[in-house]
Specification:
The structure is a homodimer of 359-residue chains.
Chain A lengths: L1 E2 L12 H14 L1 H5 L8 H11 L6 E4 L2 H12 L5 E6 L3 H9 L3 E8 L2 E2 L1 H9 L6 E4 L13 H14 L2 E5 L15 H5 L6 E6 L11 E4 L2 H15 L4 H12 L2 H27 L13 E5 L6 H10 L2 E2 L1 E2 L11 E5 L5 H17 L1
Helix pairs in contact in A: 1-10, 11-13, 12-13
Chain lengths: 359, 359
């Protein structure tokens, strides 16, 4: 089975030796901090490192057991049943699930190749909807692979100020850019006095997913509330893992790891787009500039559920576009190229095309 | 400041070198399983190892980010607002907090030197209270240091069967026994067909607290429900930490670690009881056979809040007994001897006695 389904790196692009060394460094250089209970804010040196990266005060940062846990804390803190929340259309399926679980009133706003439709969001706001939160994945969006333009980042912040909602900038892929130019985060554009952005990221894509270290940057009072909830949930997050991540970052290994991953993913996107052009020219897509995912549209009328079964029979799998939407998307799919090697990609697309021809 | 407050081991009894080796082994022997996303059940080899230790099917085990997180999942699964829950009097303050937070109707039943008062619990049940759950810390209870006798373990199970409640056997200290004889868990006494016990334990006391690995053993359908909630909370717990714990256990290092900790704690209890006899003969206590904590009663009329301040001024601290109760306990305190070395203990008790004399 060739899997374009899972958003996870293949083992060959994980710096296992570097991690082993970082673990040894963690136990050697800070045995007490690494092995003892910490507090819910996370491992202090890593929290400080993150704060420095973002140029914010440490009190605005909490380091958690993965960024999904951070999302859960944030939703628990901000989203009451019946609250309006804006998400991108399509968006990450677990975000949809987390919001549905909390009884949010979900408003999906079209995602365009340069990010969420600002006109669509403005129209929604003008219709009287008062969202508590707008969830935005700005870079190499999951599932679409699209990136929010600079102009739209500024426009979104203007809308957030005008209408008093919080932008949840969910940014785990930011470091994995392999073409084009980096754009400023909305967190940095918001300025120190304004507090319209809560930013989340993670080390899953730069260190490894099994390490489960993520974080939030937000207004100090919100972070304090979330820290209290985290204390009551688990006393402290994983200090061993956070100390290992700190060593991996502080010694600069993370720079090499990001280069390795970015180089490999650039090759995989190239292989994927070439193979699609060759074997499945009906597929429409925009090649991503980074991240793990590419969104593919097939001709109207294609039934992705039938395609999925036909593909599985032929030894290739993906995630149906419908999983990232509340309705529609029957002719769409998400291809993750993070976990497949280039030689698998050509064969996988060949099988996918064969499945499509069989419909 | 000499601290009898925190239930955590001093660094000298943590096997830091063993942990460093276990981390190297984890990345070397299973790089894929250690660095990739896992699933919410936990790291598969560790889950299997735990299941074997308890002689249960793997499907009955979930390995979590520390046992507090396991408690939170269990309470979320079983406790609705208004549900009656039995706890020991006194009990672990975070358990009280977690239950209060969920709106449980808490019934505290007296804790005796051989465990919870079975007569007291029976009287409560006969008064018509129908608890969903009884939370019991059977070995070297926190805060009292008492251990539930074998007879009472059997009697509690009989009551659970008769009245249809679940015993939450919260057992993080079981391995840290330094005198007397090990008693069977209620989980093992319950038998394979009966499902009246959910068992929780952790590696915080045997490996180290910063590793944040705990687990639940329970009925298969309940574990499946909790696994689903865990997936939605954090996808997977920390695979790096769980793989390190697995290596630490599978290579037998854990046996040596438990011996080191138990030997040290036996010496500390000896030092503590000797010092109390010498400097503070008014103190009444029962020396624990294991664990981290000893409960101390001072003469009626002692105000522990005043004592706490007087002690802090003199450079010694502890946790007030009132923190472990909903009411009463003004003449009681919990002394944790896990984090203090023997030479600190004599001086700490000397200061405590001086504070007591100053009242």
């Amino acid at each position: 089975m060739i899997s374009f389904a899972r958003g996870a790196p293949s083992l060959d692009i994980v710096d296992v030796e570097g991690l082993k060394q970082a673990a040894a460094d963690a136990f050697t250089s800070d045995p007490a901090g690494t092995t003892a209970y910490g507090t819910a804010i996370g491992y202090v040196p890593l929290r400080r490192w993150i704060a420095e990266q973002h140029g914010v005060d440490e009190a605005r940062v909490i380091v958690t057991n993965g960024s999904m846990q951070a999302d859960a804390f944030l939703f628990d803190a901000l989203v009451e049943p019946g609250d309006a929340v804006v998400v991108e259309k399509p968006t990450y399926d677990r975000t949809l699930l987390g919001l549905q679980h909390r009884g949010a009133e979900i408003h999906m706003v079209d995602l365009e190749p340069d990010g969420i439709s600002v006109d669509g969001l403005r129209a929604l706001l003008e219709s009287g909807v008062r969202p508590k939160l707008a969830h935005i994945i700005p870079n190499f969006q999951n599932p679409a692979g699209y990136t929010l333009s600079r102009e739209k980042r500024v426009a979104l912040l203007d809308l957030a100020r005008e209408h008093g909602f919080t932008i949840f900038e969910d940014d785990p892929y930011i470091e994995i850019r392999f073409s084009g130019h980096a754009l400023p985060t909305m967190l940095s554009l918001d300025g120190p006095e304004d507090e319209h952005v809560v930013y989340a990221s993670s080390f899953s894509k730069t260190v490894c997913p099994g390490i489960r270290v993520g974080y939030l940057v937000g207004p100090e009072d919100l972070i304090a509330r979330i820290t209290k909830a985290a204390t009551n949930t688990y006393i402290s997050p994983n200090m061993v893992a956070q100390s290992v991540v700190y060593q991996f970052c502080a010694t600069g290994r993370i720079t090499g790891a990001v280069e390795t991953v970015s180089r490999a993913l650039a090759e995989r996107v190239e292989a994927l787009t070439t193979a699609l052009g060759e074997h499945l020219p009906e597929a429409r897509f925009q090649a991503p500039e980074g991240g793990y995912f590419m969104w593919v549209e097939l001709p109207e009328g294609t039934d992705v559920h039938v395609l999925f079964d036909a593909a599985t029979e032929r030894g290739v799998t993906f995630v149906k576009g419908t999983d990232f939407l509340l309705e529609g998307g029957e002719n769409t799919l998400r291809l993750a190229y993070s976990g497949v090697t280039t030689d698998q990609i050509d064969e996988g697309v060949r099988r996918l095309a064969e499945a499509y021809r069989s419909l």
